[in-house]
Amino acid sequence: MKRTLLTAFALIVALLASQVPEFRQQYLQRLGGALDEVTRQVAALDERAQAAGLERYAYLRRLLGNPDPIVVREGEALLDLVSRKRRLETAIARIEDAPAYLHVVQIVLNLEPEVASAALEDYVPAAPLSLSGLFHAFVGFFVGYLAPMGVRRLFPRRVRAEG
After folding, report:
1. DSSP structure string for 61-122
2. Please, which contacts does 85-92 make with residues 24 or more away whose CB atoms are closer than 8 Å?
3. Could you tell me how far CA 87 lies from the centroid of its own chain?
4. CA 51, 52, 58, 60 torsion-angle sign
5. Per-residue DSSP letter, 155
6. Is the pLDDT assigned to residue 145 strictly greater than 80?
7. Measured at the alpha carbon of residue 87, what is the angle toward residues 115 and 136, in degrees to the nearest 5?
8. What is the mean pLDDT of residues 84-102?
9. Which helix (H) or strand (E) holds 124?
């Protein structure tokens, strides 16, 4: 019975792990969409800066150095926008370039919570027909099979003293 439960648990973990490549793909698509929108907004910022006869960062410095707090807040928002563009570009590059065994790590290290939440909300599971999906299923099975055994070894049953 224990072996059956252990195998069933391992199969469930394998099934969940096999979904990593599909979630990665859907998450990357969402990140790409977010990057497209931010890139459009940064391009509009650059056009406004150019119309004022300034480059992007000189324009932002003027906004941030303005005595009007409303203008300063606008400058801070635009600076955050430029930073987000850089962060999204970095996240996409790192996740795309990661080998299969580091997909989960790179997703976690480059997590954009709002984007991940939206991707998870619309997530549609897929059959793991790719080599990456099979790899994750294989690793998931062994983690699911070995983890309970490790936990059991950490917390062995205490033998009652017969008295």
Report:
1. HHHHT-S-HHHHHHHHHHHHHHHHHHHHHHHHHHHHHS-GGGHHHHHHHT--HHHHHHHHHT
2. 85/35, 85/38, 85/39, 85/42, 87/112, 88/31, 88/34, 88/35, 88/38, 88/112, 89/35, 91/31, 92/28, 92/31, 92/32, 92/35
3. 12
4. negative
5. S
6. no
7. 55
8. 95
9. none
**DSSP letter string over 4-64?**
HHHHHHHHHHHHHHTTHHHHHHHHHHHHHHHHHHHHHHHHHHHHHHHHTT--HHHHHHHHH
For residue 64, give both structure tokens.
């941030």
Query: What's the rounded Cα separation, in Å, for the pair 30 and 118?
Result: 8
Q: Token digits for 148?
A: 């309970």
- pLDDT tens column, 46-92: 999 999 999 999 999 999 999 999 999 999 999 999 999 999 999 99
User: Which residues, 6+ apart, have CB-to-CB distance to 1 below 8 Å?
Assistant: none
Q: Which residue bears the tokens 């929108």?
A: 37
| Residue % of the chain over a pLDDT of 90 | 56
Least confident of 90-94, 107-111, 149-153: 149-153
